[in-house]
Amino acid sequence: MALPPAERPTRVVSSPLRRCRETADPTAQALGVTVEVDARVGEIPTPSGLATEDRGPWLRKAFAGTWAEIEGDMDYDAWRGEIAGSLAARGRTAVFSHYVATNAVVSHLLGDPKVLNFRPDHTSITVLETDGATLSLVQLGREAATGVL
Predict the structure, then answer these.
(1) N or C: which end of the chain has fewer CB within 10 A?
(2) Which residues lie closer than 8 Å to 5 by C-beta, 6 or more apart?
(3) Distance separating alpha carbons of residues 43 and 61, to the nearest angstrom
(4) Which residues contact 84 (CB under 8 A, 6 or more apart)?
(5) Which residues pair with 130 in a beta bridge?
(6) What single-letter DSSP state applies at residue 130?
(7) d(CA 39, CA 43)
(8) Residue 14 pairs with which residues in a beta bridge?
């Protein structure tokens, strides 16, 4: 069922990664808007110097801990706050992002330091609400098992 016009998104924002942009495009076309690409809703930054084949083990270790415990060359706890902050200013926006970025926002809103709070399925929709300054969690998206873990 389609949302009433007054409740439909007026903007579409996507991670820079191709799979998100491709998923966002039909929604943007249906709404008659252009996809806005924003790196802040992109995938978790990999530490510089980490080999591609080491990303999976690095992610599994990160998922088992807290945001403050993630090993890397940045503050991942601050990163999750930046994502949530960028969303707080965006009312009526459909955001196309990733598993870890979604967990970053959810854990931030729940005040939970754990990296893995839930397992969003592909194309699941997590609903957030904002008044332009504050962001709140309305509903978690559909969950499923993932091949990442």
Answers:
(1) N
(2) none
(3) 16
(4) 104, 105, 108, 109, 135
(5) 135
(6) E
(7) 8
(8) 37, 96
For residue 110, give Cα distances in angstroms to 41, 82, 83, 89, 101. Answer: 18, 15, 14, 19, 14
pLDDT at 136: 96
Tell me what pLDDT residue 67 has: 96
Is the pLDDT score of 1 beyond 70? no
Helix (H), strand (E) counts: the chain? 4, 5
Backbone angles phi, psi at 75, to 5 degrees: -95, 100
Q: What is the pLDDT of residue 147?
A: 57
Phi and psi at residue 36, in whole multiples of 5°? -95, 125
Query: For residue 38, with 0-12 CB atoms within 10 Å meaning exposed, 13-18 middle and 19 or more buried, which class applies?
Result: middle
Buried b / exposed e over 56-78, threshold 16 CB at 10 Å, is: eebbeebbeeebeebebeeebbe
- The per-residue pLDDT for range 19-67, each reduced to its tens digit, is 999 999 999 999 999 999 999 999 999 999 999 999 999 999 999 999 9
Token pair 């962001």 in the structure block, residue: 135
Q: Which two tokens stand for residue 32?
A: 């008659």
pLDDT at residue 2 in the model:
76
